[in-house]
Amino acid sequence: MKKQHKFTALLLGLSLFFSACGNTQQEETLSEEDIILTFSVGTMVADFFATQTAMVTPTAASTNTPLPTNTFLPPPTVANTQLPLPTWTFAPVFPTGVANIALTPTVTGTPPTATPNTGALAFGCNNAALVRDANYPSGTTVSPGEDFTKTWKVQNTGTCDWQYNYTMAIVVDNDFDSSWGRLGRDVKPGDWAEVSVSLSAPNNDGVYTGSWRMADSGGNPFGATLSVTIIVP
User: Which of 23, 84, 90, 160 measures 20 to 30 Å from 5, CA to CA?
Assistant: First the structure.
């Protein structure tokens, strides 16, 4: 209703305004009331058109659309599974072209003492074993050129008696100029006796060794090797 009344008043004002403008002869004879009314109508017309323009012109909504929020994907989860360490097996590596070398184990403890085969030392039914040194043990010091007699205690390990005329045979004698006599008596199997050689020490200083064996009446050696080692200072 207010819009209709305003529109009616506007038409009335426009009619008066154009009537006044069309009659130029009466412009000079307008009264003060007519001037005020004409000014009021013009103001009202300007307000009307301003209001209609504001109603027709759409106002853009000033709404700020928020920017999208960056969403970061979670880092990939890596399974913390450790592979088992490899098991190393020792294997010897030999150079190319060289035959495999047999690894010799280290010997520990006390090695066994070799037992001589006394039977291999026999000649016929005669055999002999060394019991001990009767004098001049190994390493005895002897003066240069000294004459001495070396004696061993031996046992008859054969199957027949030793005859009184059994003697000695040289194995090694490069320094002593040795000599000996006869056994001088019979020795039954299992019994022991002393046998000797006469020696002369070398004149030069040093270590000297000589070896002998018993011999039957035919000069055939038998039994264990009997040795002497001396030191000439």
Answer: 23
